[in-house]
């Protein structure tokens, strides 16, 4: 699990991390949080000066969403919106609970503010799914 980490890395650093984590045979699953470019931009507008001052600007929010990781050895198997979860738990104001009822985009996230938690399964070489025991 790499919660709270990848947003501070560059896309090249995230790609390298994903590939490094895909290399060991014993590691089959990876979970992390992810934000869209729209949410990254919104947060940087609000607290970007503080993050920059701390030398910790938000850098990673891929346009392609969880699909970014496919070419680096990982297949998304579960993607859960943080807003949806928070709305179900009644941990956000009523307006945000109503927004959480809207259908979610499954594709590119772009300028839409979105954050979620993603679970990936390691792909076998050639994009095939790993079978139990590490064989394909």
Tell me the distance between the termini: 25 Å
Radius of gyration: 16 Å
Task: Count the DSSP helices.
Answer: 4
The best one-word shape is: globular
> Low-confidence parts, pLDDT < 50 over ≥5 residues?
130-136
- SSE topology string: HEHEHHE
Look at the helices and sheets and give the structural class: alpha+beta
Q: What is the average per-residue confidence, as pLDDT, rounded to a whole number?
A: 87
Helix content: 25-40%
Query: How much strand content do the residues show?
Result: 15-25%
- The tally of domains stands at 1
Largest sheet: 3 strands, antiparallel
How many beta-strand segments?
3
Strand order of the largest sheet: 1-3-2
Structure description:
This protein has one domain. Mean pLDDT is 87; it is low at 130-136. It has 136 residues and is α+β, with helices and mostly antiparallel strands. The chain is globular. Strands 1-3-2 form a three-stranded antiparallel sheet. It contains four helices and three strands, in the order H-E-H-E-H-H-E.
